[in-house]
Amino acid sequence: MKITLTQFVSLDGVSQGPGSADEDTSDGFGRGGWFVPFMDAAFVRTASEWLDHADGLLFGRRTYEAFARDWPRITEPDPFTVRMNSLPKYVVSSTLAEGTWAPTTVLRDVEGVRRLRERPGREVQIHGSARLGGALLAGGLVDTLRLVVAPTVVGEGRRLFTHPSQSTGLRLVGRDDTPAGVLLLEYATTGAAPLADYEGVDALT
Fold first, then answer.
1. pLDDT over 90 (residue 76)
2. Strand order of the sheet with strand 123-127?
3. What is the pTM of this model?
4. pLDDT, tens digit (0-9, with 9 covering 90-100), for 117-165
5. What is the pLDDT of residue 37?
6. What angle do CA 38, 33, 149 make, to 5 degrees?
7. Which of 17, 69, 115, 120 stands the most exposed, by the fewest C-beta atoms within 10 Å?
8. Domains located in the chain, CATH noted
9. H/E/C letters for each residue in the chain?
């Protein structure tokens, strides 16, 4: 199965707390909810289409515990709830004894993710879990990166990509935008990022 990482990011690269003021206040972050003003029907439609490709969901422990608390309580009909609650869940944790959001499998380390990736199927999708996603991307275990870029500069907060890290090459395979100004970018990973020296316009292809 392919490992697909989907992340909300601001123009300054922040991925922390996009959905509400109290979603993630760690390290004193006080600007949560920055993505919500830009949600519209076009974004929801695309996000639902992306979820159509999922054969499972992959989380870090902290995001898993938040999702496991909240998603089973949602009762109003929407394009996501039934699928989020019924899809197989995988959580990477060395401390979590068992999952509470059925069906859940606990993976003890990154090698568990590697074995999961080797199974037949479509996509195992990471939603949130930016630390896990960044570690897997640096480790060459992410096949597809989907960025949902909001037209805002948050000015503080944890960023999706931290340094130092391994370089990652990307190839743009899909792009769209919404009436609210959100960019929907899909990339395939291509290994280490290439480097080159500029040799003039005539050398460009």
1. no
2. 104-107, 89-92, 54-60, 123-127, 2-9, 144-149, 183-189, 170-177
3. 0.93
4. 999 999 999 998 988 999 999 999 999 999 999 999 999 999 998 888 8
5. 98
6. 45
7. 120
8. 9-191 (3.40.430.10)
9. CEEEEEEEECCCCECCCCCCCCCCCHHHCCCCCCCHHHCCHHHHHHHHHHHCCEEEEEEEHHHHHHHHHHHHHCCCCCCCHHHHHHCCEEEECCCCCCCCCCCEEEECCHHHHHHHHCCCCCEEEEECCHHHHHHHHHCCCCCEEEEEECCCCCCCCCECCCCCCCCCCEEEEEEEECCCCCEEEEEEECCCCCCCCCCCHHHCC
* Structure tokens belonging to residue 110: 């990154």
